[in-house]
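Field: sequence (string)
Field: structure_tokens (string)

Example rows 1 and 2, in order.
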Amino acid sequence: MPGEQLVRVDGRRVRLTNLDKVLYPETGTTKGEVIDYYSRIAPVLIPHVIGRPVTRKRWPEGVGTDADPGMVFFAKDLERGAPSWVQRSPIEHSTGAKDYPLVADRATLVYLAQVASLELHVPQWRFTAAGDRGFADRLVLDLDPGPGAGLAECALVAQWARTILTGMGLEPYPVTSGSKGIHLYSALPPGHSTEQSSALAKELARAIEADHPELVVSSMKKTERDGKVLIDWSQNNGAKTTIAPYSLRGRMHPTVAAPRTWDELDDPDLRHLEFTEVLDRMQAIGDPMAALGFGTGAREADDGPLSAYISKRTAGRTPEPVPSNPLGDASAGDLPIFVIQEHHATALHWDFRLEHDGVLVSWAVPRGIPPTYKRNNLAIMTEDHPMSYATFEGVIPAREYGGGEVTIWDHGTYELEKWRDDEVIATLEGQPGGPLGRVRFALIRTQGEGEKSSWLLHRMKTDAAGRAQQDGQPVIARGATEAAPFSVGSARSTAPVPPASAFAPMLATHSSPGIARRSAQRWGPWVEAKWDGVRAIGFWDGERLHLRARSGNDITSKYPELTTLDAGLGPDPAILDGEIVALDERGRPSFPLLQNRMNLSKPREIAKEAPRTPVRWYLFDVLAHDSVDTATLPLAQRRETLEQIARGSIPAIVVPPVFDDVDAALDASRQFGLEGVVVKDPASRYRRGIRSESWLKVKITHAQAVVIGGIRPGKGLRSGSIGSLLLGIPGPDGLQYAGRVGSGFSDKTLALLEKTLMPLRSEENPFVGVPREDAADALWVRPEVVGEVEYAEFTPGGILRHSRWRGLRPDTSPAEVVRED
């Protein structure tokens, strides 16, 4: 339907509509931006709401204005038509039971944002394994300023409360509510009822009021609140809720209930934060109240068949489903289901899962499904998995439990003959045309009990009717099937493709024209233009393109002209390497022009700028094709494959020509104002994440990546703004000072630099060897941001001469910066 799109979020399908609808008129914040916020904040939000019933405040038409506020709906029940995969749990009310949503995954947050659930409210208790209201696990004090009081007064009261709570062994964590006041959270020891926690909070409020009657009140009477701060203790009642940490607020501006540090509460300019600031903070400092989040070690999973699964995973840090209920789910069909997943973890294995008693009982099978009754394969029992895992595919981050890529090998239903503690016999029927077919299996326990016990997976000689079963095909890792090897010319590769997280780009080594010329003579000539853009690895699934920067960050949404349509790269999956460039009015790549695109993140801004600053993706390599790793093939043969893939691509995707003469390529680069050339060994393989001497870059323009470590305030026309930036290049003794840059800044650039650098202010000088005159009025910043400058030369002391600003390099980390001359 017009204005609708179906997206996949961590394996779940969510229908999104009206993404351009403005929900916050005063800031122009759209529904798409709200959905983006909840999607990105999920890793730190979910641990604070998981297992808790969520009550929502919905603004379907937006919050409106002061003069014309938007209509708000208070929602407890899930909407009719909510996706079946949204977890829910009932609570009895006088009018009957209501099914409250439970937020345990990113997809649920995206759905709730889609229906304009701007505010998420939760109680200070979680459901038990039986679905009942559990004990209180958090204490909350809501510091609410009355008329004549404000955030500064709340911060003072918070410090008084902190002294008492800390003395009781209840470490408090502050949250600026995004509305008026401050919330204080403390973890409670096990066994407190909500009535007990509410009584405790009330006594705390009275004690603070007794010590500071001039500023604190514990009574709910509005007549007693002028000029004072109410300590609202009542939200610990089991029937009440508090705005969840990291939830948006339905105010005129998109503020957030933002966890803060105690140092911040000492700031006289303390204020509420908007959602863009909170996202930036998450990237910079993580979650200040992470110790209170379920799944971080502060809480143990309740008893139940899924308790081991839940205890090993942190919701929001892995795309896997993390249920709040450890009991499992009821069967949804006439026949139980199975799934076999291929798992590229530390060691490749296949996960064999059978539905039983509301969970997926699971075994890891290192050698996969036996193709014949003559072979038995070892199977190791693992923890039970939730039923929702049956549809899971994705990449588990490397540092999380089970890190690696998971794909579904086959799935279907099964007919059970026997289920005992030491033996399971069943006939599985996979998908039509799938690799399994209809096969009868036996699982026989040989050693141990429960998780980590050893079993044999046996393909039965006969089916349930006693007829002989046919042998199956050998199980080979995805992309390595013998029936369809990948070949280019006489080369042949059957290596499986590593997970997407492994595709760090290959890097070139800096070289002089003379060295590059001699190398080309030795290797055979192969020269490519060096484009003045940003590196982008593209993951093509046969229909849509996903892009990642050199840093690994997802940049798909930044370039919709490449990613929101069929790019014409053929029916087979591929992983491609290239450079995103913006062309000036003469058709020449311009890195300063590309800055207009690469630093945008809001969908509305991207859509507005894209027609003014269109981009091209210049391809020069292919890392995988048709699910097979091609990195081990020679460059010349990879090039043939690349040209085949891109033969029918859209005009914005280009495979530039290869030169056969270094000097001719350098002359052409000078003529067209390009950055330089890259000379490559045509026999070289692609080495992920390696700076290789098989690729030599020769620059015509002098450009240098630099780490920003300080700001000198502007004077004259730039008074109140940035005058110049202090730059450094990492060396053996630390961040070696490399001079200043004060030219090449537009007003837009200065605004972006202020927004980027001011949150990084520090008292510590990060440089080695900065002169006293440059340090005299410097404002130091943490050396976390990389930029790029043009320059004439380096002085003998390593200082850049006649430097001019080119732009930020968010695709490069400080550790990757090296001196290029």
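Row 2 begins here:
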Amino acid sequence: MTSPPRPTGRRKWLRRFAIAGAAACVIVLGAGAVGLYELDRRHPPTLEPEGRPSVMVVDRDGALLRPFTTETGRWRLPVAVDEVDDRYLQLLMAYEDGRFRQHFGVDPRAMVRAAWQAVTSGEIVSGGSTLTMQTVRLLENRHERTLSRKLLEMARAVQLERRLTKDEILTRYLQLAPFGGNLEGVRAASLAYFGREPSRLTLGQAALLVALPQAPESRRPDRYPERARAARDRVLDRVAGEGAISQAEADAAKHERVPTARRPVPMHAPHLARRLVTADPASDIHRTTLDGRLQSELETLVRERVEQLGPYLSTAILVVDHHSGEIVAHVGSADFLSVPRQGHIDMTRAIRSPGSTLKPFIYGLAFEAGIAHPETLVEDRPTRFGDYRPENFDDEFHGTVTVREALSQSLNVPAVAVLDVVGANRLAIRLRDAGVPLKLPRIEAPSLAIGLGGVGLTLEGLTHLYTALARGGDPIALSASPEPGGAGDAKPLPGARLFDRSSAWQVANVLSDTPPPQNARGGSIAYKTGTSYGYRDAWSVGFDGRHVVAVWVGRPDSAPVPGLTGRTAAAPLLFDAFARISPARTPLPGPPRGTLRASTGELPEPLRRFRNPRAPDAEPGRAPLSIAYPPDGATISLAAPDGSRQPLSVKVDGAVSRLVWLVDGRPIRVAPHRRTASIPVERAGPVRITVLDTEGSSDSVSVRVE
């Protein structure tokens, strides 16, 4: 058996050198590992950028309505990886860091390639920086180009990879990469240069966004479009050369137009956005109930229409889903940035005269009290109420008309006559209890003038009242914020009904008969217009089976605008707004159970013609008609010992003539001159008892029976 040959002297030295080199590498790597561990322990990397991102207000689906610049005046919009076009991400990695998903923060292959390209070409072709290293630079806001800084970036990149996932690192790059001027992040750049979200980009747009961060100021498309085009084309050629896209795709993308100006960032619902951010400055994202598509379309509609109406005028629109109380569109002015139109003023909250828009609530209370019906006859003749002598808008009188005609034609004298019986103070209290207090001078009490607009009210308040009307008299809080207690919420409601469901339906039924404005498609909308004294405010408020739309037109400084009326200025906007909500309108609901539907001749005699018991020809000294029992608001048990239900006893006081009795708006059979009655009640729950006589006097109480 022969022994292996002994190594020669040269081979011995090579072997010793290899062992020493390996040992040295182990020592260097060990020392590097120890050093990196100590660096990681004593000096952890920056994981979040300095300062807050742009505060954003978004619609119900998360679409951007309005962003705000950061404290340093920059646009830095949050964006996630899955919110960016896949083609852009493909080009970014192919051009900047092809092994981003594989390396540990530093790519040795890229480093060797960059060094070789520099040696062979005599210039720096690529820097070898990974996307992780670039993210480190952006997070620390350090941009020195020294060797020591490069080595530190490499160490920080490794640290970053240990703490964050690849998508988390990429997200920070997408949010912080510079794109020229005050644009940070791909979302701000895409909106500014292309007017679209980065979730859908063309190939040319994606390539341009890849190219800009390398030299954001010298390649700004809005200043140097040719440089931007050349940089974009180089990106396309390189990624095509690496097989990420075909050359044909690259050549086609080179023909895309390069933007030469920045587009304005979205600024939808600016008044509401400002209110939300002011109310909650700590939140980065404010979610709303607005429909972004409808909001944008209504803002465009208002801008176009106000130009036709004249200079200095503004417009406000609110759209509410009356099933939920959610505000789905909020237009506070015609143009937020317009100085002549004072666009910065939110006219949805400005106190103005509502004109005739409160008339439906006068009649609603009369219907509920049993003193009027839509087919009741009422006089439209010159009438004086003390020192107050109302006149119609057209300076004409129409004689005897039905209440339906009086309301649909917005006649003034009948409305004031009914309010004189209903009571101005009672109307004001009912509206206040429903959540909308009227604005009056400090020492002034409600008077008959409030029925024709002699009171202060906001568009928000008016929308609130019509929302309650659309809901059958049931008030609900209006909110622009999906979170309970958000800044868009209305004040808490006391829970009082505006009036009963039958009365609310009768009012809506009358309003649905109002003729539409010229060239507008009618049907399925119950609406009312109003014009304030001196042509200062034009209003139109209406609803279908789903939405309430309220429109105001006028000058924010309250200057008169000759010829400005609700029917000619506001009503067309109302119908155009409904057309933009949905081509198919939601129909209005049918009448509630027990609603009295009859022609004038079929009504009980006291309801056929409206009479004012306080009119000059009323009998002097007559005691007022009143229901002595049961008291209003009482809870009464009708259960008999044997389990049956007893009738409800009612007693009437006052000097009365022939009486008519109504239960929940429907007449019941009672001897005409009896002052007591035993009324059968079929079911437990709320019941309204109304008694009226042939002279026009009436009284009404609401009780709950058990």
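free_text_note (row 2): Confidence is low (pLDDT under 50) at residues 21-31, 485-492, 617-621.
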